[in-house]
Amino acid sequence: MSTNTEAWGSRVGLVLAMAGNAVGFGNFLRFPVQAVQNGGGAFIIPYLVSFLVLGLPLLMIEWASGRFGGQFGHHSTPFIMGSMDKRWLWKYVGVFGIFSNIAIAAYYCYIESWTISYIFHSLFGTFNGMDQHEVAGFFSNYLDVTTSTTGIPYEALIFFVLCLALNTWILSRGLSGGVEKVAKIGVPMLIVFGIFLAYRGITLKAGQEGAINDGTVGLNFLWTPDYSSLANPKVWLAAAGQIFFTLSVGMGSIQCYASYLKKRDDIALNAMSAGWMNEFVEIVLGSAVIIPISIGYLGIDRVVELTGIGGLGLGFRTMPFLFEQWGPILSAIAGVSFFGLLFFAGITSSLAMGTPGMGFLMDEFNWSRPKAAFAFGTVVLLLGLPTIFFFNEGVFDEYDYWAGTVSLVVFALLEAILFSWVFGLKKGWREITEGADIKIPLIYRFIIKYITPVVLILVFTGALIRPVNDDWSNLNPREWEFHNESIIGQLQHKGVGPNKTWFADAFFAEADGKVDSVFVLREKHYIRVTRLSPGGEPVSRDYRFNPEKHSLSLTPGDEVETGAVLYSGKIVNRVFFIDMARLLLVSLFLLISLLVYIAWRKRTKDGRVS
Amino acid sequence: MNASALILMVVVQLVVVVLTVYFFYRVLVSKPKPEPDSYIENDDVER
C-alpha cells in the first residue's frame, strides 16, 4: 500500500501552484530577449498562435493525463503513462518526466541561489559605487566558485546549499502544507514586485537619474512590429519554443500536480486560469521590466548587443548597475524587488520539479515524504555540484541544453502522440471535459489530434537540423550546414573549436586576433587575444592558463590564427567536461529507468498492476 | 511610442489581462463539487 496521502488544500492554491510552476526566470529574462531578437512586436503574433495551438492543448493533455493516472494511485509519469497504454514502452518514455525535473533542478536551483545572494548584496549595498564593468565582473567572480565576493569562502556553493535545503524543507512539508503555501505567498509577491518595477521602467525619463532614454523607447522598440519577420521560420520556431518553455510543459510536473485531483473535479478551467496567469506575467510584466530599464540607461544598440549574451547575463551583469542610478535606498528596494521576483518565480518552479520524483518514491517504495524530499535534495546536490565547480567549462549549459530543452520537446511530442493516437482522443476528450466548469471549444479536438503533434514534430525537427545562421532558404541537403546549437551540431561538438580532444599537450587559439596582453587577475593568469568585429569594435577573448603547468608560445603583439598554439603543457579541454556532463545525464536516465523496472516488478509481484 | 507599437501593445495586453482576470474570477466563484472532492480545506464546510 502506498504511503502517498498528499492532497491539495484549496482550488485557488492549486491554480497558484500551477501558475507558479509555469512562471519562472524565462518570463522575465528569456521572453523579452526572444522578442527583441525575433522582430519585436511581430514576435507576439506567432507567440500567441503558438500559445493557442501548442501551449493550451499541451496543458489540457498534461492535466487530463495526470488526473487520469491519479485515479489508479499513480503520481509520476512512468506509471501515469503506463496506465494509459499497457505496452512497456510508455513506462520508460515516462522516465523523462522524472529525469528532466531532477536534472533541471540541479542547475535551476543554482540560478535560484544567485537570486538569494543578489537580494543579500542589494540589501547590503554591495553594488553601490561600482561601475558597469565592476558589476559585470562581480557576476563572473561569483561564478568562479573559488573566488569570494564577500569574504565568505565558497560563497556560491554556500548559497546553493542553503537554497537547496530550503527547497527540500518545503517539499518535506507536503503539497498543501508546503508547496501550496509558498505559491500563495510567492505568486502575489512576484506580481507586486513586477508591477513596481514595470511602473519604474515605463516612467523613466531621459535626463533624470542618469537615463538617456524615456522608458517608452524600450517599449516602442519591443512592440514595434516588423511583419516581414513573420515569413521567417526562425521566428515561428523561436515563438513555439518560448511558449513551450514558459508553460513548463513536457516536464511531468503538471501531470504530477494534477494527479492529486479527483475524477469529478475540474481541470479545464484550472488549466486555462493557470496558463493565462503565466501569460499575464510574461507579456504584461515581463515585457515592461528589463528592456525599458536597460534601454533607458544603455540605449538600443548596447542592449541589442547585450541580448546576444542572453537574459541571464542581462539580468545579473547589468540590472544591479542600472538600479544604482536610482540612489542607495531606491536601488536597494529595486534590487530586492527584481531579484525577489526572480526568487519567487524560481522557487515555485523548483518545488514543482521535486514532486514527480518524490511521488514516485512514495508510491512505489513506500518512502515517507521527508525521506523522499531528502533523497531529492541529495541527488540534486550531487548533480548540481559539477554545474557549480565546472560552470565555465560548460557543464551548466549542457544540462540546460539536454535536460532543459531537448528532453522536454521529445517528451511532449511522445505524450501528445500517446494521448491523441494511442489512448485515443475519444477517451482523452472525455477526460478533459469531465467535471469541467467551462466549455472547451470543439475545435480543440481537431487541434489536439492533428495540429499539436505536427507543430511538435516541426519544433523537434527544427531543433534537430537547425541550419547555420538560421538560413532555412537553402533546402539542398548536400549544402546543409548544421548550427552549433542544433542537436546534430551539438552531438558533433560543432561549437567546440580546435580543442577537440579530452586531453592534449597544447592549447589552440579558438579565434583569430592579436595577443593583447598577458595579465593576472585575482591570482589567475590570462592571455587576452583581441580582434576587430565587422563593425570595427575590439572584441577580446581571455584564455586562462596556469604558469606552473603551461608554457606560453606567444607574446604580446603576436598575430594569432585560429588553431595556433597558445600554450603547451598538460591540458584538460572543455570537451572533456562536456562529455562527462552528458555521461552523468545518461547515467541518471538509466538509473531512473532501472528504478522504474524494479517498481514494475514489485507491482507485478504484489498484484498491483493497473 | 509610434502608433502601430502602441496599438499592438494595448490590444495584446488588454486581451491578456481580461482573460487572466476572467478565468481566475471563474475559479473563485465556481461552486465546489460534492464531497469527497480534491481539496482538504473545505472538508468541514457545509454545502
Question: What are the main properties of this structure?
Answer:
heterodimer; A: 610 residues; alpha+beta; 4-stranded antiparallel β-sheet; 3-stranded antiparallel β-sheet; 24 helices; globular; B: 47 residues; mainly alpha; 1 helix; 57% helix; rod-shaped
- Going by helix content, strand content and strand pairing, the class of chain A is alpha+beta
Please state the CA-atom Rg of chain B, rounded to the nearest Å. Answer: 19 Å
Strand order of the largest sheet of chain A: 4-3-2-6
Q: Count of helical segments of chain B?
A: 1
* Oligomeric state: heterodimer
Given the helix and strand composition of chain B, which structural class is it? mainly alpha
Number of strand elements of chain B: 0
Mean pLDDT of chain A: 91
Helices of chain A, by number, come to 24
Mean pLDDT over all positions of chain B? 88
Notes on the protein architecture:
The complex is a heterodimer of chains A (610) and B (47). Chain A is an alpha+beta fold and 610 residues long. In chain A, 63% of the residues lie in helices and 7% in strands. Chain A has helices spanning 11-22, 25-29, 31-37, 44-70, 77-84, 88-93, 96-123, 132-143, 155-172, 175-202, 215-223, 233-246, 253-258, 268-285, 290-298, 300-307, 310-324, 328-365, 369-389, 395-422, 425-433, 443-465, 487-491, 574-606; strands spanning 503-508, 513-521, 524-532, 538-545, 550-552, 559-560, 565-572. In chain A, the strands form two sheets. Chain A has a four-stranded antiparallel β-sheet, with no helix packed on it. Chain A starts with 10 loop residues before the first helix and ends with a helix. The model of chain A has no long low-confidence stretch (mean pLDDT 91). Chain B is mostly helical and 47 residues long. Helix content of chain B is 57%, strand content 0%. Chain B has one helix at residues 3-29.
